[in-house]
């Protein structure tokens, strides 16, 4: 949790008015996601992702789309270029950082991915997608205790996320050991 708190508090960036308004609109969806069953949770999660992907600018949304298409095509370098352009023009748009973090991860550039995940979480502390990416990287680099704390936070926000319970159980065994 220390790492997550650091990510949220160490980067003091003012939220643009549109981002703050978007978070207010999402509060009902966040609450519904915490209470939803598996099938309903998928629909709510999709709505949240749709909202997170709206920058408020058609040209910025196009850069996000082009970056996502490049990433899906396996061209992480091109995706990074699109996402970097997006961030240059919309530095307060959390999803731009989260998307570029995914591209950096795909390019095995974990340090840069972690930096972008920290920015995404500073801009949107409720971004369970960025938290998921953070937990995956922390696990991969052997920081199991930190990863476990982040996965537990993800579970608070999105308890129906696929594979979540098994990841937490595995890390609990690694970090806390087994009782005999």
Automatic annotation (TrEMBL):
Keyword Cell membrane: no
Signal peptide region: 1-21
Record-linked PROSITE patterns: TPR (PS50005)
GO cellular component: membrane; TRC complex
A Pfam short name: TPR_16
Record SMART domains: TPR
One Gene Ontology MF term: molecular adaptor activity
Any single biological process term in GO: post-translational protein targeting to endoplasmic reticulum membrane
TPR repeats: 94-127
UniProt keyword annotations, A-Z: Repeat, Signal, TPR repeat
Superkingdom of origin organism: Bacteria
SUPFAM superfamilies with a match to the protein in the record: TPR-like (SSF48452)
The name this protein goes by in its record: TPR repeat-containing protein
Upper taxonomic lineage: Bacteria, Pseudomonadati, Pseudomonadota, Alphaproteobacteria, Rhodobacterales
